[in-house]
Amino acid sequence: MPVPRQYSIEMLIKAVDYYIEQTGRRVTFEYALIEGVNDSMLHAEQLGVLLKGKLVHVNLIPVNEVVEKSYKPTKSDRINSFKNMLENKYHINTTVRRELGSDINAACGQLRNSKM
């Protein structure tokens, strides 16, 4: 998903910290896992370091195949390793979202420039 470059990760985390401080409410991060793009253990480490100690929850969303972009879903064993690292090493509550909508090309990563 294209994101405006005007906001850095640092600015986002400051906003998250401020929100949590002001409201006492948890922030949920949606992390779309794309095979070979952002699903390595290094990526899990980086995410863990970024969010450790914060009142957050991470939803891991395996992206569905997008042929035009060569995106492929992350394999389940890698998803589980990613989740386990966030939970066990960084103590971040994490959920793996189940796939919905792939039968009509409306699942994560599939809803895009299609013509009706």
Question: What key attributes describe this structure?
Answer:
116 residues; alpha/beta; 3-stranded parallel beta sheet; 3 helices
Unreliable sequence segments? none
Order of helices and strands: HEHEHE
Give me the secondary-structure category: alpha/beta
Shape descriptor: globular
What would your notes on this structure say?
- The chain is globular.
- The model has no long low-confidence stretch (mean pLDDT 86).
- Strands 1-2-3 form a 3-stranded parallel beta sheet.
- It has helices spanning 9-23, 41-51, 76-89, and strands at residues 27-33, 56-62, 93-96.
- The protein starts with 8 loop residues before the first helix and ends in a 20-residue tail after the last strand.
- α2 packs parallel to α3.
- The protein has a domain at 26-104.
- Helices cover 34% and strands 16% of the residues.
- It is of the alpha/beta class and 116 residues long.
Question: What's the layout of helices and strands?
Answer:
Elements: H1 9-23, E1 27-33, H2 41-51, E2 56-62, H3 76-89, E3 93-96
Helix pairs in contact: 2-3
Give the structure's gist in a few sentences.
The chain is of the alpha/beta class and 116 residues long. The protein has helices at 9-23, 41-51, 76-89, and strands spanning 27-33, 56-62, 93-96.
